[in-house]
Design a protein that fits this description.
With 516 residues, this protein is of the alpha/beta class. It contains 18 helices and 13 strands. The longest helix has 18 residues.
Length: 516
Protein backbone atom coordinates (compact mmCIF):
# COMPACT_ATOMS: atom_id res chain seq x y z
CA UNK A 1 0.00 0.00 0.00
CA UNK A 2 1.43 3.42 -0.98
CA UNK A 3 1.34 5.82 1.98
CA UNK A 4 0.51 9.39 0.93
CA UNK A 5 1.05 12.51 2.97
CA UNK A 6 -2.65 12.67 3.68
CA UNK A 7 -2.68 9.09 4.92
CA UNK A 8 0.39 9.73 7.02
CA UNK A 9 -1.14 12.82 8.59
CA UNK A 10 -4.25 10.86 9.43
CA UNK A 11 -2.22 8.06 11.01
CA UNK A 12 -0.18 10.42 13.18
CA UNK A 13 -3.30 12.27 14.27
CA UNK A 14 -4.94 9.00 15.30
CA UNK A 15 -1.74 7.95 17.05
CA UNK A 16 -1.72 11.06 19.23
CA UNK A 17 -5.42 11.03 19.90
CA UNK A 18 -6.13 10.38 23.55
CA UNK A 19 -3.06 12.15 24.94
CA UNK A 20 -3.79 14.60 27.71
CA UNK A 21 -3.86 18.11 26.29
CA UNK A 22 -1.35 19.39 28.85
CA UNK A 23 1.28 16.88 27.78
CA UNK A 24 4.06 18.32 25.67
CA UNK A 25 5.34 15.85 23.14
CA UNK A 26 7.38 15.69 19.98
CA UNK A 27 6.83 13.22 17.19
CA UNK A 28 9.80 11.86 15.29
CA UNK A 29 8.32 10.34 12.15
CA UNK A 30 10.02 8.46 9.39
CA UNK A 31 8.61 6.97 6.21
CA UNK A 32 10.65 4.29 4.47
CA UNK A 33 11.88 4.91 0.96
CA UNK A 34 9.39 2.43 -0.43
CA UNK A 35 6.54 4.24 1.26
CA UNK A 36 5.25 0.89 2.49
CA UNK A 37 5.97 1.20 6.18
CA UNK A 38 5.80 3.81 8.86
CA UNK A 39 7.63 4.23 12.14
CA UNK A 40 6.43 6.68 14.76
CA UNK A 41 8.21 7.52 18.00
CA UNK A 42 6.78 9.76 20.67
CA UNK A 43 9.00 11.69 23.09
CA UNK A 44 7.36 13.21 26.18
CA UNK A 45 9.07 16.03 28.06
CA UNK A 46 10.02 15.26 31.63
CA UNK A 47 8.51 18.54 32.78
CA UNK A 48 5.12 17.38 31.62
CA UNK A 49 4.50 13.83 32.87
CA UNK A 50 1.73 11.95 31.09
CA UNK A 51 -1.56 11.69 32.91
CA UNK A 52 -4.16 8.99 32.68
CA UNK A 53 -7.27 10.30 31.05
CA UNK A 54 -10.72 8.91 31.80
CA UNK A 55 -12.91 9.30 28.80
CA UNK A 56 -16.64 9.08 29.11
CA UNK A 57 -18.08 6.14 27.28
CA UNK A 58 -20.44 7.01 24.45
CA UNK A 59 -24.02 6.14 25.32
CA UNK A 60 -24.08 3.36 22.68
CA UNK A 61 -20.96 1.75 24.18
CA UNK A 62 -22.33 2.03 27.70
CA UNK A 63 -25.58 0.43 26.59
CA UNK A 64 -23.70 -2.37 24.87
CA UNK A 65 -21.64 -2.96 28.03
CA UNK A 66 -24.80 -3.10 30.12
CA UNK A 67 -26.30 -5.62 27.70
CA UNK A 68 -23.14 -7.73 27.88
CA UNK A 69 -23.25 -7.71 31.68
CA UNK A 70 -26.92 -8.64 31.56
CA UNK A 71 -26.14 -11.59 29.31
CA UNK A 72 -23.31 -12.66 31.58
CA UNK A 73 -25.78 -12.84 34.45
CA UNK A 74 -28.00 -15.29 32.59
CA UNK A 75 -28.17 -18.39 34.74
CA UNK A 76 -29.57 -21.71 33.61
CA UNK A 77 -31.15 -23.70 36.47
CA UNK A 78 -29.10 -26.73 37.54
CA UNK A 79 -30.32 -29.87 35.81
CA UNK A 80 -30.96 -31.82 38.99
CA UNK A 81 -33.39 -29.14 40.18
CA UNK A 82 -35.94 -29.97 37.49
CA UNK A 83 -39.22 -30.59 39.34
CA UNK A 84 -40.15 -34.26 39.58
CA UNK A 85 -43.48 -35.79 38.59
CA UNK A 86 -45.24 -37.21 41.65
CA UNK A 87 -47.55 -40.14 42.13
CA UNK A 88 -51.14 -38.96 42.59
CA UNK A 89 -51.81 -41.45 45.39
CA UNK A 90 -48.56 -41.48 47.37
CA UNK A 91 -47.08 -38.10 46.36
CA UNK A 92 -43.75 -39.90 45.92
CA UNK A 93 -41.49 -38.77 43.08
CA UNK A 94 -41.69 -40.99 40.01
CA UNK A 95 -37.95 -41.21 39.50
CA UNK A 96 -35.81 -42.31 37.70
CA UNK A 97 -38.64 -44.20 35.94
CA UNK A 98 -42.06 -45.58 36.88
CA UNK A 99 -41.69 -48.21 39.61
CA UNK A 100 -43.65 -50.86 37.71
CA UNK A 101 -41.33 -50.52 34.71
CA UNK A 102 -38.24 -50.75 36.92
CA UNK A 103 -39.52 -53.86 38.69
CA UNK A 104 -40.29 -55.59 35.39
CA UNK A 105 -36.86 -54.67 34.02
CA UNK A 106 -35.07 -56.07 37.07
CA UNK A 107 -37.11 -59.27 36.89
CA UNK A 108 -36.09 -59.77 33.25
CA UNK A 109 -32.41 -59.19 34.04
CA UNK A 110 -32.49 -61.73 36.90
CA UNK A 111 -34.46 -64.21 34.80
CA UNK A 112 -31.93 -63.88 31.97
CA UNK A 113 -28.99 -64.59 34.27
CA UNK A 114 -30.69 -67.66 35.72
CA UNK A 115 -31.73 -69.03 32.33
CA UNK A 116 -28.22 -69.50 30.94
CA UNK A 117 -29.54 -68.81 27.44
CA UNK A 118 -28.20 -66.85 24.48
CA UNK A 119 -28.36 -63.11 25.07
CA UNK A 120 -27.56 -60.11 22.90
CA UNK A 121 -26.99 -56.56 24.07
CA UNK A 122 -27.68 -53.79 21.52
CA UNK A 123 -26.24 -50.52 22.87
CA UNK A 124 -26.15 -47.16 21.13
CA UNK A 125 -22.84 -45.92 19.74
CA UNK A 126 -22.11 -43.00 22.09
CA UNK A 127 -20.60 -42.82 25.57
CA UNK A 128 -24.01 -43.16 27.23
CA UNK A 129 -25.12 -46.15 25.17
CA UNK A 130 -21.79 -48.00 25.30
CA UNK A 131 -21.43 -47.42 29.05
CA UNK A 132 -24.93 -48.73 29.70
CA UNK A 133 -24.12 -51.80 27.60
CA UNK A 134 -20.98 -52.56 29.63
CA UNK A 135 -22.85 -51.98 32.92
CA UNK A 136 -25.49 -54.53 31.91
CA UNK A 137 -22.87 -56.97 30.57
CA UNK A 138 -20.91 -56.91 33.84
CA UNK A 139 -24.10 -57.21 35.90
CA UNK A 140 -25.26 -60.31 34.01
CA UNK A 141 -21.83 -61.92 34.50
CA UNK A 142 -21.85 -61.06 38.22
CA UNK A 143 -25.31 -62.65 38.46
CA UNK A 144 -23.92 -65.88 36.99
CA UNK A 145 -24.63 -65.74 33.24
CA UNK A 146 -21.91 -67.46 31.25
CA UNK A 147 -20.00 -64.71 29.32
CA UNK A 148 -19.85 -67.04 26.30
CA UNK A 149 -23.62 -66.73 25.98
CA UNK A 150 -23.48 -62.93 25.66
CA UNK A 151 -23.10 -61.25 22.27
CA UNK A 152 -22.99 -57.54 21.53
CA UNK A 153 -24.59 -56.21 18.35
CA UNK A 154 -23.40 -52.76 17.23
CA UNK A 155 -25.42 -51.09 14.50
CA UNK A 156 -23.93 -50.07 11.16
CA UNK A 157 -23.27 -46.42 10.28
CA UNK A 158 -26.47 -44.41 9.92
CA UNK A 159 -28.75 -47.32 10.82
CA UNK A 160 -31.30 -48.02 13.58
CA UNK A 161 -32.66 -51.22 15.09
CA UNK A 162 -35.74 -50.72 12.94
CA UNK A 163 -33.88 -51.24 9.66
CA UNK A 164 -34.58 -54.69 8.26
CA UNK A 165 -30.99 -55.82 7.77
CA UNK A 166 -30.17 -54.95 11.41
CA UNK A 167 -33.04 -57.15 12.60
CA UNK A 168 -31.83 -59.92 10.32
CA UNK A 169 -28.35 -59.62 11.86
CA UNK A 170 -29.83 -59.89 15.36
CA UNK A 171 -31.98 -62.84 14.38
CA UNK A 172 -28.92 -64.63 13.00
CA UNK A 173 -27.52 -64.78 16.54
CA UNK A 174 -30.60 -66.82 17.67
CA UNK A 175 -31.04 -64.92 20.93
CA UNK A 176 -33.48 -65.81 23.67
CA UNK A 177 -33.02 -62.40 25.32
CA UNK A 178 -32.50 -59.03 23.61
CA UNK A 179 -31.58 -55.88 25.54
CA UNK A 180 -31.84 -52.61 23.57
CA UNK A 181 -30.07 -49.72 25.30
CA UNK A 182 -30.22 -45.99 24.54
CA UNK A 183 -31.37 -46.50 20.95
CA UNK A 184 -34.45 -44.33 21.14
CA UNK A 185 -37.67 -46.09 20.27
CA UNK A 186 -40.71 -46.08 18.05
CA UNK A 187 -43.77 -48.19 17.47
CA UNK A 188 -42.78 -51.21 15.39
CA UNK A 189 -43.10 -54.94 14.98
CA UNK A 190 -41.16 -57.41 17.16
CA UNK A 191 -37.38 -56.99 17.34
CA UNK A 192 -37.04 -60.37 15.61
CA UNK A 193 -39.60 -62.85 14.30
CA UNK A 194 -38.47 -65.75 16.52
CA UNK A 195 -39.73 -66.06 20.12
CA UNK A 196 -37.64 -64.00 22.51
CA UNK A 197 -37.79 -61.76 25.58
CA UNK A 198 -37.01 -58.15 24.77
CA UNK A 199 -36.28 -55.22 27.06
CA UNK A 200 -35.79 -51.61 25.97
CA UNK A 201 -33.95 -49.33 28.44
CA UNK A 202 -34.05 -45.74 27.25
CA UNK A 203 -34.51 -42.05 28.01
CA UNK A 204 -35.36 -40.50 24.64
CA UNK A 205 -38.65 -38.82 23.88
CA UNK A 206 -41.36 -41.44 23.30
CA UNK A 207 -45.03 -42.13 23.90
CA UNK A 208 -46.23 -45.27 25.72
CA UNK A 209 -46.87 -46.84 22.30
CA UNK A 210 -43.43 -46.07 20.84
CA UNK A 211 -41.85 -49.45 21.50
CA UNK A 212 -41.32 -52.72 19.60
CA UNK A 213 -44.23 -55.11 19.76
CA UNK A 214 -43.89 -57.70 22.52
CA UNK A 215 -40.93 -56.01 24.26
CA UNK A 216 -40.94 -54.67 27.79
CA UNK A 217 -39.58 -51.20 28.33
CA UNK A 218 -38.18 -49.01 31.07
CA UNK A 219 -37.94 -45.36 30.08
CA UNK A 220 -36.95 -42.25 32.00
CA UNK A 221 -38.27 -39.73 29.49
CA UNK A 222 -41.39 -38.83 31.52
CA UNK A 223 -39.62 -38.63 34.91
CA UNK A 224 -37.64 -35.39 35.26
CA UNK A 225 -34.88 -34.71 35.88
CA UNK A 226 -34.49 -37.24 33.04
CA UNK A 227 -31.53 -39.56 33.62
CA UNK A 228 -29.31 -40.99 30.91
CA UNK A 229 -29.54 -44.62 29.82
CA UNK A 230 -26.26 -45.39 31.60
CA UNK A 231 -27.53 -43.97 34.89
CA UNK A 232 -30.90 -45.71 34.49
CA UNK A 233 -29.15 -49.04 33.79
CA UNK A 234 -26.89 -48.51 36.80
CA UNK A 235 -29.85 -47.75 39.09
CA UNK A 236 -31.63 -50.87 37.79
CA UNK A 237 -28.63 -53.14 38.27
CA UNK A 238 -26.99 -51.77 41.43
CA UNK A 239 -29.45 -53.44 43.88
CA UNK A 240 -29.15 -56.82 42.13
CA UNK A 241 -25.60 -57.67 43.22
CA UNK A 242 -23.14 -56.28 45.77
CA UNK A 243 -20.37 -56.06 43.20
CA UNK A 244 -22.21 -53.91 40.66
CA UNK A 245 -21.35 -50.58 42.29
CA UNK A 246 -17.63 -51.29 42.54
CA UNK A 247 -17.37 -52.60 38.96
CA UNK A 248 -19.56 -50.07 37.17
CA UNK A 249 -19.81 -46.80 39.12
CA UNK A 250 -17.26 -45.02 36.94
CA UNK A 251 -19.04 -46.24 33.81
CA UNK A 252 -22.22 -44.66 35.15
CA UNK A 253 -20.44 -41.30 35.46
CA UNK A 254 -18.88 -41.57 32.00
CA UNK A 255 -22.24 -42.31 30.36
CA UNK A 256 -24.06 -39.59 32.27
CA UNK A 257 -21.44 -36.92 31.58
CA UNK A 258 -21.51 -37.99 27.94
CA UNK A 259 -25.13 -36.87 27.59
CA UNK A 260 -25.68 -34.29 30.33
CA UNK A 261 -22.29 -32.60 30.27
CA UNK A 262 -19.23 -32.67 32.45
CA UNK A 263 -20.46 -29.91 34.80
CA UNK A 264 -23.46 -31.90 36.04
CA UNK A 265 -23.99 -31.70 39.81
CA UNK A 266 -24.47 -35.12 41.41
CA UNK A 267 -27.02 -33.90 43.93
CA UNK A 268 -30.45 -35.17 45.00
CA UNK A 269 -32.26 -36.91 43.38
CA UNK A 270 -29.12 -38.09 41.56
CA UNK A 271 -27.00 -40.59 43.50
CA UNK A 272 -23.97 -39.31 45.39
CA UNK A 273 -20.97 -40.05 43.16
CA UNK A 274 -18.47 -37.92 45.09
CA UNK A 275 -16.45 -40.97 46.16
CA UNK A 276 -16.27 -42.19 42.55
CA UNK A 277 -15.22 -38.78 41.26
CA UNK A 278 -12.55 -38.55 43.96
CA UNK A 279 -11.26 -42.09 43.37
CA UNK A 280 -10.88 -41.85 39.60
CA UNK A 281 -10.74 -38.02 39.27
CA UNK A 282 -13.26 -36.02 37.34
CA UNK A 283 -10.70 -35.12 34.68
CA UNK A 284 -9.91 -38.75 33.88
CA UNK A 285 -13.60 -39.65 33.62
CA UNK A 286 -14.31 -36.68 31.37
CA UNK A 287 -11.37 -37.61 29.16
CA UNK A 288 -12.85 -41.10 28.82
CA UNK A 289 -16.06 -39.52 27.50
CA UNK A 290 -14.09 -37.79 24.75
CA UNK A 291 -12.07 -40.92 23.89
CA UNK A 292 -15.09 -43.22 23.75
CA UNK A 293 -17.16 -40.82 21.64
CA UNK A 294 -14.40 -40.34 19.07
CA UNK A 295 -14.45 -43.62 17.04
CA UNK A 296 -18.14 -43.41 16.16
CA UNK A 297 -17.63 -39.87 14.87
CA UNK A 298 -14.85 -40.85 12.44
CA UNK A 299 -15.52 -41.64 8.78
CA UNK A 300 -14.58 -45.29 9.46
CA UNK A 301 -17.20 -45.53 12.25
CA UNK A 302 -15.07 -47.81 14.42
CA UNK A 303 -17.54 -48.22 17.31
CA UNK A 304 -16.35 -51.70 18.27
CA UNK A 305 -12.97 -50.37 19.40
CA UNK A 306 -14.69 -48.06 21.89
CA UNK A 307 -16.93 -50.79 23.31
CA UNK A 308 -14.04 -53.27 23.59
CA UNK A 309 -11.92 -50.66 25.37
CA UNK A 310 -14.66 -50.03 27.94
CA UNK A 311 -15.48 -53.71 28.44
CA UNK A 312 -11.86 -54.71 29.07
CA UNK A 313 -10.97 -51.71 31.26
CA UNK A 314 -10.67 -52.17 35.00
CA UNK A 315 -9.82 -48.50 35.47
CA UNK A 316 -10.62 -45.37 33.43
CA UNK A 317 -6.91 -44.90 32.74
CA UNK A 318 -6.93 -48.19 30.80
CA UNK A 319 -9.23 -46.54 28.27
CA UNK A 320 -6.95 -43.51 27.96
CA UNK A 321 -4.03 -45.78 26.97
CA UNK A 322 -5.91 -47.14 23.96
CA UNK A 323 -3.99 -45.99 20.87
CA UNK A 324 -6.93 -46.36 18.47
CA UNK A 325 -9.15 -44.13 20.61
CA UNK A 326 -6.43 -41.49 20.83
CA UNK A 327 -5.97 -41.47 17.05
CA UNK A 328 -9.73 -41.24 16.54
CA UNK A 329 -9.95 -38.33 18.96
CA UNK A 330 -7.26 -36.41 17.09
CA UNK A 331 -8.97 -37.10 13.78
CA UNK A 332 -12.33 -35.86 15.05
CA UNK A 333 -10.85 -32.72 16.64
CA UNK A 334 -9.24 -31.79 13.33
CA UNK A 335 -12.49 -32.32 11.43
CA UNK A 336 -14.51 -30.30 13.96
CA UNK A 337 -12.05 -27.43 13.59
CA UNK A 338 -12.31 -27.61 9.80
CA UNK A 339 -16.11 -27.49 9.78
CA UNK A 340 -16.79 -25.13 12.69
CA UNK A 341 -16.12 -21.93 10.74
CA UNK A 342 -19.15 -22.26 8.49
CA UNK A 343 -21.30 -19.12 8.57
CA UNK A 344 -24.92 -19.51 9.74
CA UNK A 345 -28.09 -18.57 7.91
CA UNK A 346 -31.26 -17.77 9.82
CA UNK A 347 -34.91 -18.61 9.39
CA UNK A 348 -37.05 -15.61 8.58
CA UNK A 349 -38.52 -15.56 12.09
CA UNK A 350 -35.01 -15.57 13.59
CA UNK A 351 -35.71 -18.65 15.69
CA UNK A 352 -33.37 -21.08 13.92
CA UNK A 353 -29.70 -20.68 13.00
CA UNK A 354 -28.69 -23.16 10.29
CA UNK A 355 -25.10 -24.22 9.65
CA UNK A 356 -24.45 -26.41 6.60
CA UNK A 357 -21.34 -28.59 6.52
CA UNK A 358 -20.06 -31.49 4.42
CA UNK A 359 -18.14 -34.21 6.24
CA UNK A 360 -18.00 -38.00 6.29
CA UNK A 361 -17.46 -37.75 10.05
CA UNK A 362 -20.26 -37.38 12.58
CA UNK A 363 -19.21 -33.95 13.77
CA UNK A 364 -22.55 -32.18 13.32
CA UNK A 365 -23.73 -32.85 16.91
CA UNK A 366 -20.45 -31.51 18.34
CA UNK A 367 -20.60 -28.33 16.28
CA UNK A 368 -24.26 -27.80 17.17
CA UNK A 369 -23.43 -28.08 20.87
CA UNK A 370 -20.52 -25.65 20.53
CA UNK A 371 -22.49 -22.98 18.71
CA UNK A 372 -25.40 -23.40 21.13
CA UNK A 373 -23.10 -22.13 23.85
CA UNK A 374 -22.06 -19.01 21.92
CA UNK A 375 -24.88 -17.65 19.75
CA UNK A 376 -27.15 -15.15 21.51
CA UNK A 377 -30.36 -13.55 20.34
CA UNK A 378 -33.73 -12.70 21.83
CA UNK A 379 -35.45 -14.62 19.06
CA UNK A 380 -33.07 -17.57 18.70
CA UNK A 381 -34.45 -20.92 19.90
CA UNK A 382 -32.66 -23.61 17.87
CA UNK A 383 -29.15 -24.14 16.53
CA UNK A 384 -29.19 -26.62 13.63
CA UNK A 385 -26.11 -28.15 11.97
CA UNK A 386 -26.84 -30.06 8.76
CA UNK A 387 -24.25 -32.47 7.38
CA UNK A 388 -24.60 -33.19 3.66
CA UNK A 389 -21.61 -35.54 3.51
CA UNK A 390 -22.24 -38.14 6.21
CA UNK A 391 -24.49 -40.50 4.22
CA UNK A 392 -24.91 -40.53 0.41
CA UNK A 393 -28.13 -38.83 -0.69
CA UNK A 394 -29.05 -37.89 2.87
CA UNK A 395 -28.77 -34.92 5.21
CA UNK A 396 -28.01 -35.76 8.84
CA UNK A 397 -28.81 -32.85 11.10
CA UNK A 398 -28.49 -32.12 14.80
CA UNK A 399 -30.35 -29.44 16.75
CA UNK A 400 -29.62 -27.94 20.14
CA UNK A 401 -31.28 -25.28 22.28
CA UNK A 402 -28.86 -22.33 22.66
CA UNK A 403 -27.82 -21.35 26.12
CA UNK A 404 -29.58 -18.00 25.76
CA UNK A 405 -32.91 -19.84 25.40
CA UNK A 406 -32.45 -22.52 28.07
CA UNK A 407 -34.32 -20.67 30.81
CA UNK A 408 -37.26 -19.46 28.72
CA UNK A 409 -40.82 -20.10 29.79
CA UNK A 410 -42.40 -21.95 28.12
CA UNK A 411 -39.32 -24.04 27.39
CA UNK A 412 -38.18 -24.67 23.84
CA UNK A 413 -39.32 -28.00 22.38
CA UNK A 414 -37.20 -28.75 19.32
CA UNK A 415 -39.23 -31.78 18.27
CA UNK A 416 -42.51 -29.88 18.18
CA UNK A 417 -40.87 -26.87 16.51
CA UNK A 418 -39.42 -29.01 13.71
CA UNK A 419 -42.77 -30.70 13.17
CA UNK A 420 -44.51 -27.33 13.08
CA UNK A 421 -42.14 -26.05 10.37
CA UNK A 422 -42.59 -29.26 8.36
CA UNK A 423 -46.37 -28.86 8.56
CA UNK A 424 -46.38 -25.41 6.94
CA UNK A 425 -47.74 -24.87 3.47
CA UNK A 426 -45.17 -23.73 0.89
CA UNK A 427 -45.15 -20.04 -0.02
CA UNK A 428 -45.91 -19.63 -3.73
CA UNK A 429 -44.33 -16.96 -5.87
CA UNK A 430 -46.70 -14.42 -7.39
CA UNK A 431 -45.85 -15.56 -10.90
CA UNK A 432 -46.53 -19.26 -10.20
CA UNK A 433 -48.78 -20.97 -12.72
CA UNK A 434 -52.08 -21.28 -10.87
CA UNK A 435 -53.44 -23.73 -13.40
CA UNK A 436 -50.61 -26.23 -13.14
CA UNK A 437 -50.46 -26.32 -9.37
CA UNK A 438 -47.79 -28.17 -7.38
CA UNK A 439 -46.64 -31.70 -8.12
CA UNK A 440 -48.77 -34.33 -6.45
CA UNK A 441 -46.12 -35.31 -3.91
CA UNK A 442 -45.91 -31.71 -2.69
CA UNK A 443 -49.63 -31.51 -2.04
CA UNK A 444 -49.04 -33.81 0.93
CA UNK A 445 -47.54 -31.90 3.89
CA UNK A 446 -43.78 -32.42 4.19
CA UNK A 447 -44.17 -33.79 7.72
CA UNK A 448 -46.14 -36.75 6.40
CA UNK A 449 -43.45 -37.53 3.83
CA UNK A 450 -40.38 -37.29 6.05
CA UNK A 451 -40.71 -40.69 7.71
CA UNK A 452 -39.73 -41.88 11.18
CA UNK A 453 -36.14 -40.59 11.14
CA UNK A 454 -37.22 -36.94 11.41
CA UNK A 455 -37.28 -35.04 14.73
CA UNK A 456 -36.02 -37.87 16.91
CA UNK A 457 -34.22 -37.76 20.26
CA UNK A 458 -34.91 -35.28 23.05
CA UNK A 459 -37.00 -32.14 23.20
CA UNK A 460 -33.84 -30.02 23.69
CA UNK A 461 -31.43 -32.14 21.63
CA UNK A 462 -33.07 -33.50 18.54
CA UNK A 463 -32.24 -34.14 14.90
CA UNK A 464 -32.91 -36.46 12.02
CA UNK A 465 -31.93 -38.11 8.75
CA UNK A 466 -33.81 -37.01 5.61
CA UNK A 467 -33.36 -36.99 1.85
CA UNK A 468 -31.48 -34.02 0.41
CA UNK A 469 -34.49 -32.67 -1.53
CA UNK A 470 -36.71 -33.00 1.54
CA UNK A 471 -34.22 -31.07 3.64
CA UNK A 472 -34.09 -28.27 1.07
CA UNK A 473 -37.89 -28.21 1.09
CA UNK A 474 -37.77 -27.85 4.89
CA UNK A 475 -35.37 -24.91 4.49
CA UNK A 476 -37.84 -23.23 2.12
CA UNK A 477 -40.69 -23.74 4.57
CA UNK A 478 -38.54 -22.21 7.31
CA UNK A 479 -37.65 -19.43 4.84
CA UNK A 480 -33.99 -19.73 5.72
CA UNK A 481 -31.95 -16.83 4.39
CA UNK A 482 -34.97 -14.62 3.76
CA UNK A 483 -35.11 -11.24 5.43
CA UNK A 484 -37.97 -10.44 7.74
CA UNK A 485 -40.71 -8.53 5.99
CA UNK A 486 -41.05 -4.92 7.12
CA UNK A 487 -44.35 -3.95 8.72
CA UNK A 488 -46.46 -1.58 6.71
CA UNK A 489 -46.52 1.93 8.09
CA UNK A 490 -43.43 1.39 10.20
CA UNK A 491 -41.22 4.45 10.62
CA UNK A 492 -37.95 4.30 8.66
CA UNK A 493 -34.93 3.32 10.68
CA UNK A 494 -32.27 5.84 11.32
CA UNK A 495 -29.16 5.40 9.23
CA UNK A 496 -26.50 3.34 10.88
CA UNK A 497 -22.88 4.40 11.03
CA UNK A 498 -20.70 2.50 8.57
CA UNK A 499 -18.22 0.08 10.11
CA UNK A 500 -14.63 1.29 10.06
CA UNK A 501 -13.13 -0.07 6.84
CA UNK A 502 -9.82 -0.55 8.61
CA UNK A 503 -11.25 -2.97 11.16
CA UNK A 504 -9.76 -6.42 10.66
CA UNK A 505 -11.51 -8.33 13.46
CA UNK A 506 -14.76 -9.24 11.73
CA UNK A 507 -17.18 -12.19 11.79
CA UNK A 508 -16.58 -12.68 8.08
CA UNK A 509 -12.88 -13.23 8.68
CA UNK A 510 -13.71 -15.86 11.32
CA UNK A 511 -16.18 -17.78 9.19
CA UNK A 512 -13.85 -17.60 6.21
CA UNK A 513 -11.08 -19.13 8.28
CA UNK A 514 -10.40 -22.77 7.49
CA UNK A 515 -13.68 -23.12 5.63
CA UNK A 516 -11.99 -24.85 2.72
Amino acid sequence: MQITSTTFSSLTTRFCKGLHTSSKCRLNCRVSSSGASISVRRTIHASSPPQLMKRKEPSSVAQASATKRSRARLEVPDYHLSPSVRDEKTSDAIWPAPEAQMKQARDIILECARSQKRTIIVPDKDADGLSSGVILHRTLVLLGLNPELIRVHLLSKGQTIHHEHEREAMAALSPDYIFVLDQGSRKSGPLIAAPHTGLVIDHHHATPEDFPEGSAFCTANQSPPVVTSALLTYLLCEPLHAGVSDRTDWLCVVGTHGDLGTTLKWEDPFPDMSATLKKYTKKALNDVVSYVNAPRRTATYDVSSAFDALLSAEHPKDVLKHSRLLAARQEVNAEVERCTHTAPRFSQDGKVAVFKIKSEAQVHPVIATRWAGHLQSKALEIVMVANEGYLPGKVNFSCRVPRCAKARDPSVDIIQSLKAYASLKPVKDEDDDNDGGLPDQHEIPLLERLGDDFARGHVQASGGIVDVDQFEELMRLMRVGEKKEKKQGASPQKGKKPIDAGQSNKLTSYFGKKSA
